[in-house]
Amino acid sequence: MKNLETLRTGVRCAAVPLTLATLSGCGGGQPERPNILVMMTDDHTAQAMSCYGSLLVETPNLDRLAREGMLFENCYVSNAISGPSRACILTGKYSHVNGFTDNSRTFDGDQQTFPKLLHAAGYQTAMIGKWHLNSDPQGFDFWSILVGQGEYYAPRFIENGEERTEEGYVTDIITDKAIDFLEHRDPSRPFALLYYHKAPHRNWMPAQRHLGMNDARVYPEPFNLLDDYSGRGSAAREQAMEIGRDMWPEWDLKLMTPERLAQSYELAASGDANKDDVSRANDWRSSVMQYQAAYNRMTDAEKERWNAAYAPRIAEYERLKRTATPDELTRWKYQQYMKDYCAVITAVDENVGRLLDYLERIGELDNTILVYTSDQGFFLGEHGWFDKRFMYEECQRTPLLVRYPKAVGAGTRSRALAMNIDLAPTFVEMAGLPVPDDMQGRSLRGVLTSGGEAPEGWRTGVYYHYYEYPSWHSVKRHYGIRTADYKLIHFYNDVDEWELYDLKHDPHEMRNVYDDPAYAGIRRQLHAELEALQAECGDADPCEREYEFFRGSDNL
Ligand code: SGN
Ligand code: CA
Fold it and tell me: 82: Cβ below 6 Å to ligand 1?
């Protein structure tokens, strides 16, 4: 790794201001500042982490982080989609301020980010894995990012500007690169490493060693897997993310056969089909092509094992297609979805363990603030869905674990309302730097060092705003507030609908009580709180301002 070889000598203490040089250990001072390791996955939801009580998958290494550190029960993202969430984390600012409102945007890399601030203060910085911001990373001594959404097998990376393909499985490779960076780092400086996985993003392709591992497992179904969306508005009804209807058999469930491949080649938009049928047929064809391209990244030996692993599932599907009712098929698809999603998580967990072991071996584990989070949560069959985007609990909430024994008690849990925009100010403050006034998140240091208690004056509501519509999965634009007990949401743009959920009595958000007279007072209060939050963060009511959405980006 030529780029890494230069790291040791590439940045000299002379480039660092004297005071910071002293702090960072250059020139004989004590290296008091903690290393920072941000481990982020893509679409890993708390419902699939055993430390959050999941019965779906065992995550012993993530559980170790929770056991030795703090688990946040109420961490929320401000916009539940990849690029936007990543931009919020980097800048500590909401989407309307950092400019990356939806996945079609290009991140303005010239703006302030926490890695840049740490780098300027003498940290050795690296970004490895899924970046998804359309512009080159800035503020890193080393970066190796996946191309676009990233591939599970033989993934392509852009490494300090040059494209390269790596052999093997993406989660293992990202970890190899992270360990390699650490191995070649300048030990006289603290490091800040962003270790960002593709997994468990769609289409959930397991590593070879995990093929078939969950075949015998039967997953508990969410009670609302067959939700009919009664009691809610048009947004819930009109989305395109239902396991039963919207999953592609080949891409999502790996049900490819030579017949279906041939059929997809032959398929031509038929003149007498209606527009929706043609567009669905074209979407299906692209999903088959997409699967074929992903499959072809495997070696012949890998393909062989893959084919053997999925053959029984394909045979079962062919049978079920003829015999099962639509609801039975949905339930069967849910089982297959969970088998793959959870197998992909197992590789994440193993690799997190590998990284922890490495840090322990080099004596840096306890000097490192270790954070585990995801770019947002995900639906695992709740409301019948996969994907995210909605301000509903399963995906607005994101996992957050922090291990740093020098300041954070082992086995602590926090109920404080935390947000993804809080990470940047937390890192900056814990590195001993002043938190810039324009960061909108709040440092979690007080929460971390007080056993999880929210300090006086902590926020009582989190703000949310989602913009990417019309686009993938057809989730309408919306914004809103979540407090400890309630959630108020406004769907706007092509509709004007409000939803209010009483989370204490209806934690799964099945009954919109916005028009229920019993909630008139709560409703008034939540509207006032929402307006105050919008004023505080400078988001004008989107109904009164034009919002332009660009389609056709490769980044979506
Ligand atoms: C891809 C996926 C979508 C997913 C978006 C955004 N389709 O477009 O299902 O919602 O990414 O995900 S796929 O056919 O490519 O699998 S995000 O996490 O990057 O925001
Ligand atoms: Ca994501």
Answer: yes
387 in contact with ligand 1, CB cutoff 6 A: yes
Dump pLDDT digits (tens) for 48-69.
999 999 999 999 999 999 999 9
d(CA 105, CA 135): 9
Q: How far apart are CA 150 and CA 140, in angstroms?
A: 20
Q: Would strands 75-76 and 162-165 be described as parallel, antiparallel, or unpaired?
A: unpaired
Q: How many CB atoms lie within 10 A of CB 33?
A: 23
Peptide bond into 307 cis (omega under 30): no
One of 3.40.50.10490, 3.30.230.10, 3.40.720.10, 3.40.50.720 is the CATH number of 30-204+341-455, namely 3.40.720.10
Beta bridge partners of 129: 145, 196
10 Å CB burial of residue 30 (0-12, 13-18, 19+) is exposed
β-sheet bridge partners, residue 124: 191
Let me know: does 118 contact 427? Beta carbons within 8 Å.
yes
Distance 374 CA to ligand 2 centre (A): 7
The CATH T-level fold of domain 463-550 is Arylsulfatase, C-terminal domain (3.30.1120)
Ligand 1 in reach of 289 Cβ (< 6 A)? no
> Can you give 343-360 as a three-state secondary structure string?
HHHHHHHHHHHHHHHHHH
- How far does residue 59's CA lie from ligand 1's centre (Å)? 24
For 480, residues 6+ apart whose C-beta sits below 8 A from its C-beta are: 391, 463, 464, 487, 488, 489, 490, 499, 530
Assess whether the C-beta atom of 302 lies below 6 angstroms from ligand 1.
no
DSSP string, 13-38: GGGS-HHHHHHHTGGG----SPEEEE
The answer, yes or no, to whether any atom of ligand 1 lies below 6 A from the CB of 248, is no
- Boundaries of every domain in the chain: 30-204+341-455, 236-340, 463-550
On the question of a cis peptide bond just before residue 470, with omega within 30 degrees of 0, the verdict is: yes
Ligand 2 centroid to residue 77 C-alpha, Å: 11
Atom of ligand 1 nearest to the CA of 81: 20
**Whose atoms come closest to the Cα of 44: which ligand?**
2
For the full predicted model, state whether its pTM sits above 0.90. yes
Q: What digits encode the pLDDT tens for the residues 407-449?
A: 999 999 999 999 999 999 999 999 999 999 999 999 999 999 9
